[in-house]
Write a structure and sequence with these properties.
Helix content is 47%, strand content 19%. By secondary structure, it is an alpha/beta fold. The longest helix is centred in the middle third of the chain and has 21 residues, at 214-234. It is globular. InterPro entries: Dehydroquinate_synthase, DHQ_synth_AroB, DHQ_synth_fam, DHQS/DOIS_N, DHQS_C.
Length: 362
């Protein structure tokens, strides 16, 4: 059964379809979308050999010849140089303003492709086909697209909503366990920021979640998307409420930068960052110790790290000020006030932050 989550944004609204075997739904969508007959399917060297030809054939049967363009797998591809290569190929293919660009892959592919779609000819149609658990519950939803800069992650980007998202559970079958765990980092986050019952459900259904049993996978993806869609609906451009989606991310981005975006998957860095944010929350008197320990236990139970190798307190602290959430030299920290409730604070003393960062270093 296909579950659908609506992202209600007026004329920019779209549907997230979640289920097994969504190719027919994709074909039907493309047929009625009114796209130009040429498009582009962006994927990477990991996902492309597994799925690209089959997906391109489906899109072709719906009336759009989408050329497969492959990028090297990994965070190092999320650059202006790689974006320029995609711009060049789009121009060579004579893509016009109604030519769709499809993103088939994880978060790197989705972020890069979305950035290209947002800026090529000032915006062309964009469809997300996320193939990782992390992308299905996070980066494919909400319209934040970007590339990295050597001084920081996602500093060059835009808000640009896709026309649709197809979260096909069949595409998760080839994921290694580490990739499942990294998606669970973001999933745990949703329970902490908005839904204590969902957090408790994750605690109670750990085995089915880790094995991506179909019913459990559909539930965690749908619930995560529902939470994110509701937040995005109320604050599309991160003016206030949407900041809560960044719980754990301020520290995570510093960890990723300090380790050259190689040592840790994004969800792993988020897990460590959530442990740090929970520590800061407790030090600030906002979070009970027993709730911090519950957060840490669930992170560990899902196969995620609580500490980081290859980082220093001074290095991470300096990196915090290159984060997008730092405004006027003040870091906007998303802190837990309990499981299911967070707030945004900009009054966290340096010594508390440094103490928390020290606790994250192995």
């Amino acid at each position: 059964m296909t579950r659908r989550v609506e992202v209600a944004l007026g004329e920019r609204s779209y549907t997230i379809a979640i289920g097994e075997g969504l190719t027919e739904a994709l074909i039907a969508f493309v047929r009625r979308a009114g796209y130009s007959p040429r498009g582009m399917l962006v994927t990477d060297t990991d996902v492309g050999p597994l799925y690209a030809e089959r997906i391109a054939e489906c899109i072709a049967s719906a009336g759009v010849a989408a050329e497969i363009v492959m990028i090297p797998a990994g965070e190092s591809s999320k650059t202006l140089d790689e974006a320029n290569r995609l711009f060049t190929r789009a121009i060579e293919l004579s893509l016009d303003r109604q030519s769709p660009i499809f993103a088939l892959g994880g978060g790197v592919v989705g972020d890069l492709t979305g950035f290209v779609a947002a800026t090529y000819m000032r915006g062309v149609p964009f469809v997300q086909l996320p193939t990782s658990l992390l992308a299905q519950v996070d980066s494919s939803v909400g319209g934040k697209v970007a590339v990295n800069h050597p001084l920081g992650k996602n500093l060059i980007g835009a808000f640009y909503q896709p026309d649709a998202v197809f979260a096909d559970l069949d595409l998760l079958r080839t994921l290694p366990q580490r990739e499942i765990a990294t998606g669970l980092g973001e999933i745990i986050k949703y329970g902490i920021i908005c839904d204590s019952e969902f957090f408790a459900w994750l605690e109670q259904n750990r085995t089915d979640v880790l094995s991506l049993a179909p019913a459990a996978a559909a539930h965690v993806i749908a619930r995560s998307c529902e939470i994110k869609a509701d937040v995005v609906r109320r604050d599309e451009r991160e003016g206030g409420l949407r900041r809560i989606l960044n719980f754990g991310h301020t520290i995570a981005h510093a960890i990723e930068k300090e380790t050259d975006y190689i040592r840790y998957r994004h969800g792993e860095a988020v897990a460590i960052g959530m442990a740090g944010a929970a520590d800061i929350s407790e030090q600030m008197g906002l979070l009970r110790r027993e709730d911090r320990l519950r957060i840490e236990r669930l992170i560990e139970a899902m196969g995620l790290p609580l500490r980081a190798n290859g980082v220093t307190v001074d290095g991470m602290y300096a990196d915090l000020f290159h984060d997008k959430k730092t405004v006027g030299g003040h870091i906007h920290w998303v802190l837990a006030e309990g499981i299911g409730r967070v707030s945004v604070r900009s009054d966290v003393p340096e010594e508390i932050v440094r103490r928390a960062l020290a606790g994250l270093c192995r």
